[in-house]
């Protein structure tokens, strides 16, 4: 299966999320990507499994410390790959919206559910003033969050070659939606 990373552009923040550092040339030798491995819960940890067909899109949000007054620099919504959009919210959170096209192309079956690796390049993000942001991953179905996973912080800047795992669990009131059985 082809692994696609979220692409670099001339915007330094966006250079951190890249399809191909060498193909788009953000400058310098590309570092090995840091990987955010997202695993849909299979029910073994309590809760209901989340199947891939139930997910229309996924959001990945890096949340800087509000108490320290940190924020990512401004970035208007920008398409960074087919089915992937990056932006910085008014609150200074870096957001990736990952659509069904990207999910279907890159997710791997894992038992009754799935996992997806999101390769990130953090080599040009360390000048943002952000340290150890929290991360939140949401699975969206028909515009509604059906599952969520969180991590209190990511080591910053992102270590090249590093991997962090986030388990995304079905929200308690979304059992039917997580299993693609809602009307």
Explain what the structure shows.
This protein is mainly beta. The protein has one domain (14-24, 33-173). The chain is built from three helices and ten strands; from the N terminus they run H-E-E-E-E-E-H-E-E-E-E-E-H. The protein has helices at 21-24, 100-106, 175-178, and strands spanning 34-40, 57-63, 78-81, 84-88, 94-99, 108-110, 113-120, 134-141, 144-151, 163-170. Strands 3-4-5-2-8-9-10-1-7-6 form a ten-stranded mixed β-sheet. It is globular. Residues 1-29 have low confidence and may be disordered.
Strand-helix topology:
Layout: H1 21-24, E1 34-40, E2 57-63, E3 78-81, E4 84-88, E5 94-99, H2 100-106, E6 108-110, E7 113-120, E8 134-141, E9 144-151, E10 163-170, H3 175-178
Parallel strand pairs: 1-10
Antiparallel strand pairs: 1-7, 2-5, 2-8, 3-4, 4-5, 6-7, 8-9, 9-10
User: How do the strands of the widest beta sheet line up side by side?
Assistant: 3-4-5-2-8-9-10-1-7-6
Spatial extent as radius of gyration: 16 Å
Strand-and-helix sequence, N→C? HEEEEEHEEEEEH
Helix count from the secondary structure assignment: 3
